[in-house]
Amino acid sequence: MGNAFERKQRVAVVGGGPGGYEAAIAGAQLGAEVTLIEQVGVGGSAVITDVVPSKTLIAVAEATNAIGEAADLGVQFFARNETTGRPVRPEVAVNLAQVNKRLLGLARQQSEDMRASLIRAGVKIVSGHGRLDGPDSIIVSTGAGADGVDFDHIDADTIVVSVGASPRLLPSAMPDGERIFTWTQLYGLTDVPEHLIVVGSGVTGAEFASAYRALGSQVTLISSRDQVLPGEDADAAAVIENVFKRNGMTVLSKSRADSVERTATGVVATLSDGTKVEGSHCLMAVGSIPNTRGIGLEEAGIQLSESGHIRVNRVARTSAPNIYAAGDCTTFLPLASVASMQGRTAMFHAMGDAVNPTELRNVASNIFTQPQIATVGWTQRQIEEGIAQGDIYKLPLSSNPRAKMMGIKDGFVKLFARTGSGTVIGGVVVAPNASELIFPIALAVEHRLTVDQVSRAFTVYPSLSGSISDAARAMHIVL
Ligand SMILES: Cc1cc2nc3c(=O)[nH]c(=O)nc-3n(C[C@H](O)[C@H](O)[C@H](O)COP(=O)(O)OP(=O)(O)OC[C@H]3O[C@@H](n4cnc5c(N)ncnc54)[C@H](O)[C@@H]3O)c2cc1C
To answer: How far apart are CA 471 and CA 396, in angstroms?
Structure first.
């Protein structure tokens, strides 16, 4: 039993996104006195501007696509012209004002639910901008005083920094929130843009380009590389680029946008070779920068990388022993799932509980284009470069009976298994619901299952997951 005079561990968490939220909940559960400092809203960018709104918009785009593709399955829509009585081809109309109102409402509700959970868990929430004042104290400007400025001073035994990241801005293409946008500003649109130029073909650019094309915009995607989604599985990126082009999107490869400016009626992007691309609106998706400047990190003994990310180890500890960091502000992967895991791990470690250090290679991630791309484990490139030893097997979905029934035209399952032992070390799924289909492969990677163990489990017939089992069976090692 604890000493009655022993005081609780004081934990201060700066930032209430997935990283900070999970750290706060775990800290309270483990008996710490937790204060969470948040300047915008609980849930962070993940809930308010990034994951929740974008994935809700994409769900709408998927619904629009499903209607468009239903004709391939024999579903016909028609309406009658009231005067002539003749059938006419109806058009799918997206009410973007209603879509955006709904998704912002969902985000707000999610933020409120998370705030309520924190309060129920006993976490104290302080609204304001936090800045470290040495390694064991935080100053919060709360804006609560009579002159709009007031400061709270919070002492802590352990600090978790989880301040996230913000869209990178280019001085020659400054967003105005009316015609030129960052992804955080798009949800103010009330009409589907006539012609959206998307600058940047990484995950965010590709997801929005895919979604807005499905919603009815003409889309031009400006990509500085020779293929969209640089750094992702090359076969998967090739599928997506083909689908984009087949759906009428213009993809400008090896093109760099030097500037984006407003015109009388829209926007014009000037490429480095002088070409001008005109559109009605432009989305700038050229990466993020960590929110780590000017908040006293280096003064508190925390090492940052050149890009300004906080260096952390696998238990999310920084170079200052009592300070941890989680999420997009760290040198780990910029994913909500990773931020949450780091937040929990940090608290378990700080509070002396059992810790599973985060294994980045086991992280499953998904790109919500149509079709989706999900990946886990080692990559084909790493195998081909000899960094990992493995065999590669790719099975197109065109051979899957369920895919045929559903009219799925594109996609594949790819497995990577250790040469000799057949242990699954990674995989890629390109399919309409790849985010759900990757889980069995992630389980296999996490628990080091062999291809034989994977293929021994039953899959439903007919099912897309049958292709995962078929791929594993094809990789059987003959003794
Ligand atoms: C368009 C888009 C879509 C995405 N989709 C996905 C997806 O589908 N799946 C996925 O896993 N990831 C996705 N991501 C990535 C995901 O959003 C991030 O990995 C996640 O938000 C990281 O969480 P975090 O806690 O580090 O930071 P954030 O969610 O950014 O939260 C940080 C919080 O800290 C607060 N803050 C910052 N500085 C201070 C300060 N000094 N004082 C007080 N508070 C402060 C901010 O207000 C913010 O609320 C997406 C990203 C983008 C841009």
So the answer is: 10
Report yes or no: 249 and 369 within 8 Å, Cβ to Cβ. no
> Which residue bears the tokens 């081809």?
89
Nearest CA, atom 17, ligand 1 = 46
- 106, 49 contact by CB (below 8 A): no
Nearest CA among 183, 165, 181, 166 for reference residue 57: 183
Residues 49-84 have pLDDT tens digits of 999 999 999 999 999 999 988 888 999 888 888 899
Q: How many A from CA of 164 to the centre of ligand 1? A: 5
| pLDDT tens, position by position, 257-316 | 999 999 999 999 999 999 999 999 999 999 999 999 999 999 999 999 999 999 999 999
Pocket test for ligand 1, best of 36, 163, 284 (most atoms within 8 A of CB): 163
Cis peptide, bond prior to residue 290, ω within 30 of zero: no
CB-based contacts of 269, cutoff 8 Å, min separation 6: 173, 197, 199, 222, 257, 259, 260, 276, 277, 279, 282
CB 341 within 8 A of CB 358: yes
- Bridge partner list, 249: none
Mutational pocket test of ligand 1: of 51, 54, 198, 288, the residue with most ligand atoms within 8 Å of the beta carbon? 51
Which structure tokens are listed for 336?
Answer: 């909500």
Q: Is 347 in the pocket of ligand 1 (CB under 6 A)?
A: no
Q: Do β-strands 195-199 and 281-284 pair in parallel, antiparallel, or remain unpaired?
A: parallel
Q: Atom 19 (ligand 1): residue with closest C-alpha?
A: 335
d(CA 255, CA 59): 30
Please name the amino acid found at residue 10: R
The DSSP string of 192-238 is: --SEEEEE--SHHHHHHHHHHHHHT-EEEEE-SSSSSSTTS-HHHHH
Give the angle 121-127-130 at the CA atoms, nearest 5°. Answer: 105
Cα(278)–Cα(391) distance, integer angstroms: 46
Domains detected in the chain:
10-48+101-166+289-361 (3.50.50.60), 171-286 (3.50.50.60), 371-474 (3.30.390.30)
User: Residue 175's closest CA among 152, 197, 191, 154?
Assistant: 197
* CB distance 257 to ligand 1 below 6 Å: no
